[in-house]
Write a structure and sequence with these properties.
3 strands, alpha+beta, 3-stranded antiparallel β-sheet, about 35% helix
């Protein structure tokens, strides 16, 4: 467990990247981590788009100011009609499942020496217009990928965490 806890503590939101290209094998490893993510009733109601051609990255970057100059961006979407729904209150788990996938991507990226951050601030309708294949999905997050630049280190608040006692109640 020490290796995972170290990974979880060391991972940070990277907001600046070098020009070094991301190897296809590393992108494939991230996709493998995404597929391995647990989802409610194993429905896997999500999709990932690998935005990697310069033209596609430019189109996507026009929909957010938080692309951070990445040369590869993963887009994670959720399909509500494919997800498990809790019968007691009708809670649909598509966004939760897509979020688990995103977390796997972030942790795997750090493990592979890559940087990324969870970007939720983007114009989803504009993304869907620029990429019609994404239109049927609820777009949950963008993950710009690259090798961390020195100025892309952890934000000042990264190490500021509430205590376990503030966040956990034992019953």
């Amino acid at each position: 467990m020490t290796d995972f806890l170290q990974l979880a503590h060391d991972r940070y939101s990277c907001r600046a990247f070098t020009d070094r290209p991301v190897e296809a094998e590393k992108v494939d490893a991230l996709l493998d981590a995404a597929v391995a993510a647990p989802t409610a009733v194993d429905r896997q109601p999500w999709h990932v788009w690998v935005v990697e051609t310069p033209e596609a990255v430019e189109r996507l970057s026009a929909c957010t100011r938080f692309g951070f100059g990445a040369r590869v961006i993963l887009v994670v979407g959720a399909a509500a009609d494919e997800a498990w729904v809790r019968k007691y209150d009708g809670r649909n788990f598509a966004d939760v499942d897509a979020s688990i996938v995103g977390t796997h991507i972030m942790l795997a990226a750090h493990d592979l020496g890559l940087g990324t951050t969870w970007v939720g601030h983007f114009d989803a309708p504009a993304v869907k217009e620029a990429f019609p294949e994404m239109a049927p999905y609820d777009l949950v997050a963008l993950f710009p990928l690259g090798y961390p630049a020195p100025e892309g280190g952890p934000a000042p608040k990264h190490l500021e965490r509430k205590s376990v006692d503030e966040l956990v109640t034992r019953l």
